[in-house]
Amino acid sequence: MKKAPRQKPSCPRPKTPHQRELTTKRRGELAEVAFTHKAVSLGFAVSKPYGDSQRYDFILDSGTALYRIQVKSSSTLLNGLYHVNSQRRTGGGTVPYLPSEVDFLIAYLIPEDSWFILPIALIGNRASLLFNPKGYSRGPGVYGAYREAWDLLRQPRQCSSCGHSVPTGSCGADTGCRIGGCPSHPRFL
């Protein structure tokens, strides 16, 4: 009996946009769980807004301030650097996060289990960010000072419009109300 010719394995089919979205969505969900674990283990209280209509993923309570947190993640190197999208999708396009929407973008580099704590004002209108891996031959990179910079979340809150320090009462509430307190901008959130 003659054996049938052996077939070569075919190349994997390219993923459909739906399959890519599921992978991206699942990675984002895992990054959010990892963030919650990390933040709580560092002594922060973390709350998740109901639904996903807000521009931020979490509210982080540092004990002296509340911060709106957007979590992003990356799992692969692109030309030797980790790439993280720093915008949101809306109406078929992309829009950067604004200081009036989010206080910090926290980037999680999954293979390294590294966190970058970035004030949203630092990012500006950038649609994407590049992060050097640990031990990168050219140094820590533009955002190296923000690697594991969790202490930024323990500092007093500042007005996103002018940078004034916003005083907090003994209960942790901003002076006047949760939405006010800046001497120059009564509504800084």
Question: What does it look like?
Answer:
It contains two helices and ten strands, in the order H-E-E-E-E-E-E-E-E-E-H-E. It has 189 residues and is α+β, with helices and mostly antiparallel strands. The protein folds into two domains: 18-154, Trna Endonuclease, Chain: A, domain 1 (3-Layer(aba) Sandwich), CATH 3.40.1350; 156-189, no CATH class. A five-stranded mixed sheet has the order 1-2-3-8-9. A three-stranded antiparallel sheet has the order 4-5-10, with no helix packed on it. It has a two-stranded antiparallel sheet with strand order 6-7. Strand 6 and strand 7 form a beta hairpin. The longest helix is centred in the first third of the chain and has 25 residues, at 17-41. The chain starts with 16 loop residues before the first helix and ends in a 58-residue tail after the last strand.
Helix and strand content put the structural class at alpha+beta
Arithmetic mean pLDDT: 80
Strand order of the largest sheet: 1-2-3-8-9
CATH architecture of the largest domain: 3-Layer(aba) Sandwich
What is the chain-wise order of helices and strands? HEEEEEEEEEHE
**Helical run tally:** 2
**What gyration radius follows from the Cα positions, in whole Å?**
21 Å
CATH topology of the largest domain: Trna Endonuclease, Chain: A, domain 1
The geometry reads as elongated
Q: Write down the domain tally.
A: 2
